[in-house]
Amino acid sequence: MPIIFTKGDLLHTDGVRTFAHACDATLAFDKGLSLALAKRWPALRDEAARVASTRRLEPGELLSWTDGDVVVYSLVLRRAPDKPAKLAALERALRALLERAAADGRLEIATGRLGAGAPGLDWTRVKKVLTELTASSPVGLLVFEQFVRERAP
User: Fold this and answer.
1) Of 40-44, 88-92, 148-152, which gets the smallest average pLDDT?
2) pLDDT of residue 114
3) Which residue among 1, 65, 73, 82 is least crowded, i.e. fewest CB within 10 A of its CB?
4) Closest residue by Cα to residue 144 from 2, 42, 1, 4
């Protein structure tokens, strides 16, 4: 499926019901898109805290949370907030994301600059990985490279 790079407010884009974001194994959801998702769906943060307290997560893992017709996929890219992310973890998590989303019938996923914020991955390299891995997938990504707040009517 194609990958589309755009700008805007992914949480307020009509028709978007599937989201992906990068996080660390603590699942703190305290920065960037993770924080915005947790504020919008507090039950997501509650479930993340439950999972983080019951098992050790590894970089490259994928978690899924559903509420009605909304699905949020969390890509674990590093062990802790003070540890750097690795591109290999992004690749593993992205492969798992594309496979799981296809199985779930989710053919379009909105995301931000996966791993290029707090995790510290180089956006040019991340963009290349995203483009290469989605090329052979039935799942498309709608990547919001730049946040632009939606204007009130």
Assistant:
1) 148-152
2) 94
3) 82
4) 4
| Encoded amino acid at 46, one letter | D
Q: Strand pairing of 3-8 and 140-147?
A: parallel
User: Do residues 114 and 3 lie in contact, with contact meaning Cβ atoms separated by under 8 Å?
Assistant: no
CA 79 to mean position of chain CA atoms = 16
What is the CA 125 to chain-centroid distance, rounded?
16
What are the distances in angstroms from CA 83 to CA 76, 80, 107, 110, 139? 12, 5, 32, 26, 30
Q: Give the Cα separation of 75 and 83 in Å (integer).
A: 15
Architecture of domain 3-147: 3-Layer(aba) Sandwich (3.40)
Decide if pLDDT at 41 tops 90.
yes
Contacting residues for 131 by C-beta, under 8 A, at least 6 apart: 3
Of 81, 82, 90, residue with least CA distance to 121: 90
Question: How many other CB atoms are found less than 10 A from the CB of residue 92?
Answer: 19
Q: Is there a contact between 2 and 56 (Cβ–Cβ < 8 Å)? A: no
